[in-house]
Design a protein that fits this description.
Aspartate Aminotransferase, domain 2; Aspartate Aminotransferase, domain 1; seven-stranded mixed β-sheet; four-stranded antiparallel β-sheet; 12 helices; 16 strands; binds pyridoxal-5'-phosphate; lyase
Length: 472
């Protein structure tokens, strides 16, 4: 921190100039998060930027708006309405906080039941697919001491297989977590089949293993694009759902939601009744203070767009996704990994990656301003690398067409460059790893019919073997 102050205009200019070097958020196609909102909403956000959400006594209208958002979202997810059934929910910072809260509720419910039965309650687990959002679910597992039992993927099948998941359920399973809109390729998991198989298993075993749906992206897509798809509270074992308001809820960063089917699904002991400034304030969030703007912005979008507006936005995203997907197919260079039904994104991989990798394409697209991530799939599909473009509300048809043109340019440029794929030959074992720049392939002896050719190719590219760090 400098010893002396500087004029506000100078501070602004210094920071403004340095921040110009950040990527352009609108061209950040890696992100599911909202990068554009209407100017009227921007005004509401600025007007409420100084309100601490937790001070409910001071800002009762904001509290009321968050409750209305919970009601609308619970309704959207078909929460049962009855005299005894009332969904409950809360606004969070994003899906990660929502998942922590949902996971805690399952853990506490399971522990209470096991204690009452006089059974051990120290080894809780969650069954989920290996495609689960790594940071968020792994964080929950590590912070709250719950084992994650992951169903492995396989080539061509990149979501959790419901049959395998149900096989992995045991008496210590606090819930099965299904994903509506896999982060890797946008695909929806078959929650209905999972529910039906789990109903049977519960009947057989006497357990009552529930389901949580991580609908971070899909929660604001499925109700509008696929209203007939049963994935939500229409299925009896679905007890809680999280969704990111800041993804297809169409609000800037900092808002998520978690909704429980009934108030019995949220153990009362997890709700804090804080006597803050003389008023009883029930809270069930991980943080205390936070901004109000995002809750207000979510309410704006729900009433401004309504069902009609959300449906139009989602349909538009899907149409632009199709323009991009068809453009990529026409190049004949890529396999499309994403599915028709799901989050409007295109995940694709090179048909032939013997000379260049998806990481190089990602890297070279940066020169045109595009931020497109490349990553490897989780076990057992880690040998597959994909590029992913998320189609958001502000990604127009013009941009989709422009991106295809730029990808074609990059492919032509790459074709003119020497191969950057490095072959590491180590006979007798099979292993492959991608580190962003180089793909190292360890070849099994039986797979190598012409090892000498590979070595010669490599020598042509790198005449001085000392420079190869012994990779060859
Ligand atoms: C399926 C899924 N779950 C959870 C998350 C984490 O969500 P958030 O960034 O809102 O915390 C993501 C983020 O992309 C996601 O795709």
């Amino acid at each position: 921190m400098p010893g002396n102050s500087i004029p506000n205009e100078a501070a602004y200019q210094i920071m403004h100039d340095e921040l110009m070097l950040d990527g352009n958020s609108r061209l950040n196609l890696a992100s599911f998060l909202t990068t554009w909102m209407e100017p009227e909403c921007d005004k509401l956000i600025m007007a409420s930027i100084n309100k601490n959400y937790v001070e409910k006594h001071a800002y009762p209208i904001t509290t009321e708006l968050q409750n209305r958002c919970v009601n609308m979202i619970a309704n959207l997810f078909n929460a049962p309405l009855g005299e005894t059934e009332t969904a409950v929910g809360v606004g969070t910072v994003g899906s990660s906080e929502a998942i922590m809260l949902a996971g805690l509720a399952f853990k506490r419910k399971w522990q209470n039941k096991r204690k009452a039965e006089g059974k051990p309650f120290n080894k809780p687990n969650i069954v989920t697919g290996a495609n689960v959002h790594e940071v968020c679910w792994e964080k929950f597992a590590r912070y709250f001491e719950v084992e994650l039992k992951k169903v492995k993927l396989s080539e061509g099948y990149y979501v959790m297989d419901p049959e395998k998941a149900v096989e992995m359920v045991d008496e210590n399973t606090i819930c099965v977590a299904a994903i509506l809109g896999s982060t890797l390729n946008g695909e929806f998991e078959d929650v209905k089949l999972l529910n039906d198989l789990l109903v049977l298993k519960n009947k057989e075993t006497g357990w009552d293993t529930p389901i949580h749906v991580d609908a971070a992206s899909g929660g604001f897509i499925a109700p509008f694009l696929y209203p007939e798809l049963e994935w939500d509270f229409r299925l009896p074992l679905v007890k809680s759902i999280n969704v990111s308001g800041h993804k297809y809820g169409l609000v800037y960063e900092g808002i998520g939601w978690v909704v429980w089917r009934t108030k019995e699904d949220l153990p009362e002991e997890l709700i804090f009744h804080v006597n803050y400034l003389g008023v009883d304030q029930p809270t069930f969030t991980l943080n205390f203070s936070k901004g109000s703007s995002q809750v207000i912005a979510q309410y704006y979008q729900l009433i401004r767009l309504g069902h009609e507006g959300y449906r139009n936005v989602m349909e538009n995203c899907r149409e632009n996704m199709i323009v991009l997907r068809e453009g990529l197919k026409k190049t004949e260079k890529f396999n499309i990994i994403s599915k028709d039904e799901g989050v409007p994104l295109v995940a694709f991989s090179l048909k032939d990656s013997s000379s260049h990798t998806e990481f190089e394409i990602s890297h070279m697209l940066r020169r045109y301003g595009w931020i497109v991530p490349a990553y490897t799939m989780p076990p057992n599909a880690q040998h597959i690398t994909v590029l992913r473009v998320v189609v958001r509300e502000d990604f127009s048809r013009t941009l989709a067409e422009r991106l295809v043109i730029d990808i074609e340019k990059v492919m032509r440029e790459l074709d003119e460059l020497p191969s950057r794929v490095v072959h590491k030959i180590s006979l007798g074992e099979e292993k492959s790893e991608a580190n962003g720049d180089k793909l190292r392939v360890t070849v099994k002896k039986s797979d190598m019919e012409t090892p000498r050719e590979i070595i010669n190719d490599w020598k042509k590219l790198v005449p001085d073997r000392k420079k190869t760090n012994g990779i060859c």
